[in-house]
Design brief:
The chain is mainly α and about 270 residues long. Helices cover about 75% and strands about 0% of the residues. It is globular and about 60 Å long.
Amino acid sequence: MEPVRKARLATLLGRFWSSSLASELEYPLNVAVEVLAVAGNLAGSLFVLSLFFGEGRSLGGWSWPASLVVLGCYTLLEGFTVMLLQPNLSRIVSHVQNGTLDFVLLKPLDSQLWVSLRLISPWGLPSILAGASLIGVGLARSGGGGSLATAAASLLMLLCSTLILYSLWFLLATTSIWFVKVWNATEVLRALLMAGRYPISAFPSGLRLVFTFLLPVAFLTTVPAEALLGRASLSWLSGALAMAAALLLISRLFWRFALRFYTSASS
């Protein structure tokens, strides 16, 4: 992308997000509600996770501090979902139903970019802060991380996990071109992705295959956690990069394919 176009896009996103934040912050009490919800969810997740650990026990070869890093990666993604995925991708259904997708398609801006990044919600910040804190505690207690190469690999894997999560959500949201009540399917997806709270090696071998190749939960939390702990293998890092690139490309092609079947409100 040309530098001028990048600058224009950054300016446009800045205006979109500032108006979106101003709208959301009209209800400051939501901050307290969201903090309480995150604290409750986190306490529940930590309690369930602690049940797998006893004296000298591990979860699929993962210690308690290392498992905290996995849970931290999952909590980070929850915050990303609340901040960007939910506010934007949930609107695709209403755009199709009300015919307002016409206005999106007529804008001089890439339509996938518009429907994916138009809005931002500050209510994902508590989850992001909680996830970062869990990762910090887990790394401090396990002695992982530290080197520049580890930090670079960790950032790259976290970026891959957000792209994979975005692609999965976007693929489902795109099916609203054909199916009206697709938002229920995204809730099912969200429930399935809760498996990412635990290391992938904690599951039976059959489920490991499902959560690696069919529903790539392993690349959402376990692989980034391995990178953060400084013990990710080159094959897993390469697999995460390939999975993120492939799903992003598929979501792009699927969106263009689906638009051929979109019936304009004016037609």
